[in-house]
Amino acid sequence: MPFADLPDVRLFYTVDGPRETPGDAARDTANTLLLVHGWGSDSHEWVQHIPQLAATYRVIAPDLRGHGYSGTARTGTTPRTMADDLRILLERLRADRVVAIGHSMGGQIVGHLADTPDLVTALVTVDPAYGFGPQLADSFPRIARELAGPRGTEAAIALDAWTSTPATPRWIRAWHARRLLAAPQQVLAEAFAAMFTAPDAIGPRPAAEDHLRHRSQPTLCFRFDRDLAAWERPLLSHPGSRVVCWPDSGHRLHEEHPEEFLLVLTRWLDETVRTVQPEER
């Protein structure tokens, strides 16, 4: 069964890829990918990517606590706790080293997971949910209150509107709206507050800058906002790091442009990650 029973929650996950045998490439540093979805979503957001990636890599795709087919705990729906969940899951799957790929809130989660550098060889962040300046950050307390209020689901749907552009396929907008309608309001509110208004939140820019300056692994970052891309580039100190900006995309650029996303991702993995040996980290 594709479920893992953790101390306080049950996680759904899938594992795809080449069969593993002793000494096989699937156990190599660069050959296990962990795909982490965003806020109010689930691992289905990677369905356009898993088949191609699984032809070469071992691909682990979980539903985070409170999302998708995973269980909901009374507390702990925070990026840091979700990262702890994934550490346990990876240990049980004997995934000693991974390339951690995260979208939006998943970008925060893989960042926290990377605090264990022996586990995370490299990161790919897809419009990660951090680095927001005062113009946006000043609105976070109000949004957090609305999400925790009696019309929290409506607030979540309204908030999600910024993720799309007129060019975003309607099916993507509808798909994610339905996910938010089904998500427990407590989960959405608690996760948002943990990302953006809690004392240890890394969503606002000053905390995000400190977080990124301590990152030692190579990172491929996708952004659709030119200002955020320009802000992040000098903060990623590893020579293998790269920031890609697609200004005509929305927040879910990996879903809007899956073929282009896979092309950039797999080339970077081949050129950068496979050259990183454990002693270099």
Topology:
Layout: E1 3-5, E2 10-16, E3 32-36, H1 50-54, E4 58-62, H2 79-92, E5 98-103, H3 105-113, E6 120-126, H4 134-137, H5 140-148, H6 152-160, H7 170-182, H8 185-196, H9 205-213, E7 219-223, H10 226-232, E8 242-245, H11 253-256, H12 258-271
Parallel strand pairs: 3-4, 3-5, 5-6, 6-7, 7-8
Antiparallel strand pairs: 1-2, 2-4
Helix pairs in contact: 2-3, 5-6, 5-8, 6-7
Residue share in β-strands: 5-15%
Radius of gyration, in angstroms, nearest whole number = 18 Å
Remind me, CATH topology?
Rossmann fold
Order of helices and strands: EEEHEHEHEHHHHHHEHEHH
Structural class: alpha/beta
CATH architecture: 3-Layer(aba) Sandwich
Uncertain spans, ≥5 residues at pLDDT below 50?
21-29
Structurally, the number of domains stands at: 1
Main β-sheet: number of strands, strand sense, barrel status? 8 strands, mixed
Question: Quick one: overall form?
Answer: globular
How many runs of DSSP E, i.e. beta strands? 8
Strand order of the largest sheet: 1-2-4-3-5-6-7-8
Number of helices: 12
The proportion of residues forming helix, as a percent range, comes to: 25-40%
Q: What would the average pLDDT be, to the nearest integer?
A: 93
N-end to C-end Cα span: 35 Å
What is the C-level CATH assignment?
Alpha Beta
CATH superfamily: Alpha/Beta hydrolase fold, catalytic domain
Gist of the model:
The protein is an alpha/beta fold and 281 residues long. The protein contains twelve helices and eight strands.
